[in-house]
Amino acid sequence: NAGVMQNPRHLVRRRGQEARLRCSPMKGHSHVYWYRQLPEEGLKFMVYLQKENIIDESGMPKERFSAEFPKEGPSILRIQQVVRGDSAAYFCASSPLTQGDGNTIYFGEGSWLTVV
Amino acid sequence: GQNIDQPTEMTATEGAIVQINCTYQTSGFNGLFWYQQHAGEAPTFLSYNVLDGLEEKGRFSSFLSRSKGYSYLLLKELQMKDSASYLCAVPVWAAGNKLTFGGGTRVLVKP
Q1: Is residue A47 within 8 Å of residue A56, measured between CB atoms?
Q2: Which of A38, A31, A26, A5 is nearest to A114 (CA)?
Q3: Model confidence over A18-34: pLDDT tens digits?
């Protein structure tokens, strides 16, 4: 049973380019969360999605960032016109439809974005 | 809103015990997580406490006091591989399983 799969693991972009990060949740999980971790900091919530719906995007920067979770395929976090401050680790997590006993939130290995 | 505080860094000796404290303020409480994160890796689940008291899992134990808004993670018989960041997090069940994390405590284990 594959875990939460993220790709690419490492991505280098020049300032002004676009970055696309993909996340395939665990089988049977319909909730996806994206978190960002800046160097030497804790994880910060960005967005919570279910299939074809954005449930909570209160942590997303107002500009240049967008996320989707289509009916088919992985969830995608898209960052347009990247700047150096976007350099961070982006983690995806998934959980099943029902609220579990706490250990039902699974994290992917993360995507490390470096903007040069 | 939610706020979580934990120390930035701690140092301990191999074989010793270290206690990492976490205080939180939440508008509603739905349990508390502890995660371990090695540098350059994903967080891995350690524990989840929803009731007061101590829960032990091998060398790691986690304690919760809901009335005090306080938790700690206890690491016993420290090993070099325990050098990592330890993240305290609280979920907001009303918003799925959205987690609010503390800044993490970096533990350095010295020989």
Answers
A1: yes
A2: A38
A3: 999 999 999 888 889 99
